[in-house]
Amino acid sequence: MITQAFGLSRLIVFIINATGIALIITVFSGNLRKILKLIFILMTVFMFIWVDLAFLARVVEENNLGLLYIKLAWSVTPLLFVLVFCFITVFLRISDNYKYFSIFSIVLGFLFLAMIPLTGLVISDIQYVNGTLEILYGDFVWLFFGFVFVYTLINFSILIANLRKKDTSAEIKIRIKYLLIGLTIFFVANSIFNLAAPVFFSVFHLYEFGDYSLIIFLSIIAYAISTNRFARIEIVTATFLVSFLGSFLFLDMMLFSETFEQIASKAIISVLFIPFGYFLVSNVHKEIEQKKELEELNRKLKELDQIKNEFISVAAHELRAPLTAVKGYLSMILDGDAGTITDQTKDFLQDIQLSTERMIRLVNNMLDVGRIEEGRIVYNLEDINLAEIVNTAYNEFKLEAERKNLEFRLDVQSDLRDRVHVDRDRLHEVIVNFLSNATKYTETGGITMKLFNKGSKTVRLEVVDTGMGISKEEQKKLFRKFYRVKSKVGKTIGSGLGLYISKLLIEKFEGEIGVDSEPGKGSNFWFELPVSS
Ligand code: ADP
User: Fold this and answer.
1) What band does 230 get if pLDDT is binned at 50, 70 and 90?
2) Which is deepest, 22, 141, 233, 248, by most CB within 10 Å?
């Protein structure tokens, strides 16, 4: 029975030690003020003394040694409470207000540290009753408990006062709450198991649970004080896991090896573990850093994209007004409003007119793209006959095709079912984009527009040209924003927006868009729309 109980205690104490070391490593590698790290480490060391010596006292079952161990374990307790006080005041950056009181408290703590082991005033003797350690208290034990109680009260009141203060930031308040939770667990566990049970009810065998609550207290403190590094759960988990495992291996080697071979093999494992642990933790760190950087870059890119869109929109807007004026005056001159003109002048002016129209289309595309992407456009959806718009667009490009000496044809299937549910002007834009490209990129041969049904529910428009064609590779990228086929850029004006916008619009009308093309032979740009019944 006894051995089994100690087996469990031994395991718990072992885990507490490993956790203690892991906490030290975690806090030490954290981003904290040095003084806080120092106090925390001292607190943890005192916890080791307290928990380990009290454990040893329970297991030795030899009066003199047991008495020494338990006295030493008790001797650090008052100082530990003083350290908690120092820790809280330093953490809250109010230690200057308590400078003299802190020094006085530390002196008192040291007095206890000396008095408890050297005299019988607090602990006079011990005895083992059925394997359970019982403490015989000295006449001044109340001084010990009184001291601990007073400092607990002080710690609680400082924390609560700062929690209530208006100028304490929300973040610090959360940390204070954690500290309060830790302190409460520690205080309640100690009051029950270390004070009430043994002193008032002579129940000694639960004593160790008071000691164990220390590690919970310290873990909560470590969590409470940890800065943003700890905010990432991956880092905490990895660091803690590695430090815990490392400490575990080390303690196991130091405490539970019986032969030299055992020490040697465990030492090898411990040493091998170091680079592994380091690698793991540093990789997690790196990954988190990279993630942060990527997030930041992404944010910047979005910002730049926004600025670029605004610029395009402003530039396009400013360009449109003069272009429209040019177009207006041109058609007036061509109509003879400004007097008669020679045939050659008319020819030149028609060229200018076509180029101006192309530029207006381009500027319109630049303006549209942002609006369509952001859903700022209002679609005027209605049922119309597709052939009507196709005809209009065909007539608009007749002149241009003629001037380039291109054969230009329109084939419409007889008894065509072409009722579609679309925005008339927007769909007209798509067809114009196809035709504008076909005339732009075709030098010889011709352009044929084909309008026919594909099955009973779909109507398909094809704009087939005998132009330069597009490679398979580039066909895939064609409908992307700002994409222009490499070899042709510079030779023609364009923004690489026409097909992108066309795709957005056709998809909006629940249709499909695509291209079939062969370099050198020509291209077939098409779209299909569902026929509305
Ligand atoms: P833009 O014509 O303003 O550059 P588009 O989005 O309309 O932009 O077209 C993208 C690219 O696709 C063009 O730059 C051109 O290289 C290529 N392209 C489009 N239509 C044709 C076509 N009929 N024949 C050959 N290449 C074409």
Assistant:
1) very low
2) 22
Q: How far is the CA of 112 from the centre of ligand 1 (A)?
A: 89
Q: Which band of pLDDT confidence, cut at 50, 70 and 90, is reported for residue 227? A: low
Average pLDDT over residues 455-483: 92
pLDDT at 491: 58
Q: In this structure, which CATH number among 1.10.10.350, 3.30.365.10, 1.20.58.100, 3.30.565.10 belongs to the domain 381-530?
A: 3.30.565.10
Distance of CA 265 to CAs 248, 261, 272, 276, Å? 15, 6, 11, 17
Instruction: Please tell me the distance between residue 302's alpha carbon and the centre of ligand 1 in angstroms.
Output: 27
Which residues face 136 on adjacent strands?
125
Q: Which DSSP helix (H) or strand (E) runs through 235?
A: helix 233-255
Output the residue whose Cα is nearest ligand 1's atom 2: 494
Residue 301 pLDDT greater than 90, yes or no:
yes
Q: Residues 353, 355, 357, 360: is their CA dihedral positive or negative?
A: negative
* Residue owning the nearest CA to atom 8 of ligand 1: 496
Interval between CA 369 and ligand 1 midpoint (Å): 16
List the chain domain ranges.
33-224, 299-373, 381-530
pLDDT at residue 102, rounded to an integer: 94
Q: What's the CA gap between 22 and 28, in Å, rounded? A: 10
CA 327 to ligand 1 centroid distance, Å: 24
Q: Dihedral sign for Cα 406, 407, 413, 419, please.
A: positive
> In this structure, which residue's CA is closest to atom 20 in ligand 1?
437
The type of residue at 400 is E
Question: Each residue of 114-163: pLDDT tens digit?
Answer: 999 999 999 999 988 888 888 888 999 999 999 999 999 999 999 999 99
Tokens for 309, please give them. Answer: 């869109």
> Which atom of ligand 1 lies at the shortest distance from residue 468's CA?
25
- The upper half-sphere exposure of residue 206, i.e. CA atoms within 13 Å in the direction of its Cβ, equals 14
Pocket of ligand 1 (CB under 6 A): 433, 437-438, 441, 465, 467-468, 470, 478, 483-485, 488, 494-500, 523, 525
Q: For position 492, what pLDDT does the model report?
A: 63
Q: Does residue 450 surpass a pLDDT of 50?
A: yes
- Distance of alpha carbon 366 from alpha carbon 495, whole angstroms: 8
Structure letter (DSSP) for residue 416: -
How many residues are given for the chain?
533
Distance from Cα 65 to the centre of ligand 1, integer Å = 93
H/E element, 431: helix 424-440
Q: Does domain 299-373 have CATH number 3.40.50.720?
A: no
Q: Which of 400, 441, 479 has most ligand 1 atoms within 8 Å of its beta carbon, as the pocket-test mutant?
A: 441
Name the pLDDT band for 457 (thresholds 50, 70, 90): very high
Token representation of residue 18? 């490993």
